[in-house]
Amino acid sequence: MDIIHLLPDSIANQIAAGEVIQRPASVVKELIENAVDAAADNIQIIIKDAGRSLIQVIDNGQGMSKTDARLSFERHATSKIHSAKDLFALRTMGFRGEALASIAAVAQVELKTRRKEDEIGIFIRISASKVEKQETVAIHSGSSFSVKNLFYNIPARRKFLKSNEIEFKNILVEFERVALVNPQITFTLRHNSREIISLPISNLKQRITNLMGGKIAQNLLPININTSFIQIYGFISVPTASKKRGALQYFFANGRYMRHAYFHRAVILAFEPFIPIGDHPNYFLYIKIDPASIDINIHPTKTEIKFENEQMLFQIIFSAVKEAIAVPTLEFDQEKVIDIPSYRGKEIQITPPIIQMYSDYNPFSDKYVYENSQINWKQSCLKNQTNNTEGTAERIKTTYLQYKGKYLILSLKSGIIFIDQRRAHIRILFDDYIKRINHKQGISQRLLFPEKISFTPKEITILPYILDDLAFIGFDLKDLGNNIYSINGIPAGSENIDIIATLQEIIDKILTTSCEIKEEITESLILVLAQKTAINYGNFFSEEEIHTLIARLFSSTSPKYTPDGKLIIFMLSEEELNKRFL
Fold it and tell me: Helix, strand, coil proportions of the chain in percent (round to 5)?
């Protein structure tokens, strides 16, 4: 009896969908790329419930005939490949003919489309690869794809989708990758009836600015290298704009987003002498090359591309980036104009600024950090500590040493304890902010002159999940529209930090760590703030400040480690110490 048989198309399509359509963002990517290939210059994307309920892409491209519309849902149906040699001359986004068939296998799909030369369009409805309806319809020229109830017929796949926050963030990632390489197209993105992004036709630099925020424009250095076989153009950031996390790093090849670890290394090596260790530069680099010299068919999502002569390309990229850093250009197309007052003799009375100093500032005092504390920490410091590090709790004596403003060394009856003072302060602040959030008692310091902060569309999606927590720890933010917020108040004790940079770092960390559970998001937020406001190394404290720090630390439920797992306390017993002198 024969045991090998061909799978039905519906099952084969579902298997293919597992590779091509992994989440709502995959559908968005495929449909937008189809619209780009259709020569559209206006593309609208409408999303509901992060793509679970609806993904609709409307374009004004060339549209399809009745026959093409129907064939587009068949597996391996494509307008881009006629022979094997065409695989080595691809200049379009999609070409395999799997996307629409895969989408139709796992969702309910409706297509309305019309060519400009046709008087009437065609409407097709397909569910789980089965055509349910096909008829003529009046529609503008172009195409409208509606994908409803994604994975409705594969409950296991639908169950493994992440939260709406995470799934919509992934949609934004795919949207950005297409929009960044097509500034000649108008894009609009709406989510749950709210317009998230509206991008007009523009030049490349303006498209980057519109997507990534206005501040990035002043930090971009242009690159434009032409050789006999390759063109590399785009922008890199100035070294001073590098980031610890959340750097914006994009490679594109022939209009397609790609990942390329080897070329990324070329950029990093070029930046290495100019940025601190651990920092990452922003870059938006576009490669134009003969399609015959690349292979884009090595990964289902086509984000990995193999190049001929990669070592040569590495050197070209390295040299181009290094030259751009070394020879920055002056640009005169900035929208902002600096108003330089003219000299008018004795009319202007120039007075030096008055700087108000707080000579009594104490970062560990109740006034600045621990307003809610009702405990006499100096006295409690002398009491026996319970639940301390590995049973070393006992009365803390006043014998101590500060080493280089970094470590506190205390003499105990049973040995010596070493404390990293900055990490101890991070632990204390973290616990304090947690209490504020749990008790919903934010302590805010009003700003005399409110500051403004601008968020990118991707960053703005995170705010609804953290605004309450930010308020509970002392931030007073007001929505001014157009992704701009006013900072009217900040947490007490954070007056000496760059609050805009801190908020930006909070958002970056949440985005880059892909936090999904509310508690994880909250802890990520608080950890960044605690690290920013904690005392720096190099500070020497009075005896009272040391007692306050130690007492606050030992009152923590986790005094031995920082919230991100770094050691705070190290104990050297008298027995271990004696062994050193044997």
Answer: 35, 25, 40
pLDDT value at position 17?
55
Q: Where are the alpha helices (DSSP H) in 200-358?
A: 204-212, 261-271, 310-326
DSSP for 340-394 reads -PPP-GGG----PPPPP--TT--TTSTTTT-TT--S-HHHHTTSPP-S-GGG---
Q: Who's near 38: CB < 8 A, 6+ residues apart?
A: 59, 61, 62, 63, 142, 143
The pLDDT of residue 23 is 92
What's the pLDDT at 284? Answer: 97
pLDDT of residue 344: 45
Q: Which residues contact 538 (CB under 8 A, 6 or more apart)?
A: 404, 405, 406
Domains detected in the chain: 9-201 (3.30.565.10), 205-326 (3.30.230.10), 377-572 (3.30.1370.100)
Tokens representing residue 173 in the block: 């990632």
Q: Are 189 and 175 in contact (CB under 8 A)?
A: yes
Distance of alpha carbon 511 from alpha carbon 471, whole angstroms: 20
Question: What is the rounded distance in angstroms from the CA atom of residue 234 to the CA atom of residue 249?
Answer: 12
Q: Is the pTM of this model over 0.85?
A: no
Q: How confident is the model at residue 523, as a pLDDT?
A: 87
Contacts of 239 (CB under 8 A, 6+ apart): 271, 274, 275, 281, 325
Task: List the chain residues with pLDDT less than 50.
Answer: 80-84, 86-88, 90, 93-96, 330-348, 353-359, 361, 363-397
Q: Tell me which residue of 542, 525, 522, 521 sits closest to 533, measured CA to CA.
A: 525
From 411, 379, 398, 445, select the one nearest 542 (Cα to Cα): 398
> Which residues, at least 6 apart from 308, have a Cβ–Cβ distance to it below 8 Å?
293, 294
